Amino acid sequence: MADFELMHFQEGHLLSATALSEAIGWPHRQSDWKMLLAFSTGVVAKRNGQVAGTALRSDFGPDLASIHMVIASPDARGRGLGRALMTSLLGATDRNIRLVSTRSGRPLYEKLGFQDVARLVQHQGTLTAAPEAIGAQDAQPRDLDSIRRLESQSYGGDRSALIEWLAENGELAVMRSRSDVTGFAGCRRFGRGYVIGPVVAQDVQDTKTLIAHHLKGLVGQFVRLDIVRNVDLTPWLADAGLFMTNQSPVMERGTIPAAPDRMAVFSQGLG
Ligand SMILES: CC(C)(COP(=O)(O)OP(=O)(O)OC[C@H]1O[C@@H](n2cnc3c(N)ncnc32)[C@H](O)[C@@H]1OP(=O)(O)O)[C@@H](O)C(=O)NCCC(=O)NCCS
């Protein structure tokens, strides 16, 4: 019989959840967890009275959800806790699910029917120099409808609430053709510094211009960026001090019509 019990993830679990993710070397601050929980349904596993596991599911419209922050405490692994967390979140929805796997998560996700659809290439470091940025502009309130539309189309689900959060709590830059918004990039505080994403753009040149627009204010800061489209920005980012540190498979379960069509994700967890 299992020696843990599952319960609904509530605000009161945030401190323990932060300690759990810190213990396995993840950068999330308590405020990052709080933001994720605001967009999620979550479950925690308690063992010996302590939070020993977490998992969150964020629903983006009626068809698609993301599962993330799946953690079992190192001393509680291999006893079915990870599977129980996943099964609990999967069982409560008919949505197709997208997630980013780690090496230790892959066996579990494969057993649960997830398949590789793309690859996330993580870059990070202390920004040493900002590439030249000509052509992008700070987004204006009137751009928000276009940004919501571009974000939701490129993700494959309704991301309006996430864009509203970013407009209030971060920065948004846009590319325009005449008066139309053709691409955008977000930037916000996260973990050890800042994250740039999502980036939705028509081509590689626009992607660089949007990223560079945010980088110009971040020299000396720790910056992270997770590229998902099959474009090689690694040498260009390395010149600025942002090195490739990891690659992770994006996995999906269900009948998702297409892989995500975006240059960089909002975050590893939220896609
Ligand atoms: C991923 C993680 C949550 C799994 O937690 P766990 O409690 O050890 O998982 P479980 O005990 O439920 O095992 C899950 C399944 O994977 C299988 N498994 C685990 N490692 C395996 C391996 N190396 N090869 C084959 N199967 C493996 C187990 O046998 C089990 O299968 P079963 O349910 O059919 O018996 C845990 O390893 C973890 O916290 N990793 C660090 C955080 C992370 O990377 N999270 C995932 C990314 S979001």
From TrEMBL:
SUPFAM superfamilies: Acyl-CoA N-acyltransferases (Nat). It holds the Pfam family Acetyltransf_7. Residues 4-137 form the N-acetyltransferase domain. The keyword Transferase applies. One of its GO terms (molecular function) is acyltransferase activity, transferring groups other than amino-acyl groups. It comes from Falsiruegeria litorea R37. Signal peptide: none annotated. Keywords: Transferase. This is Acetyltransferase (GNAT) family protein.
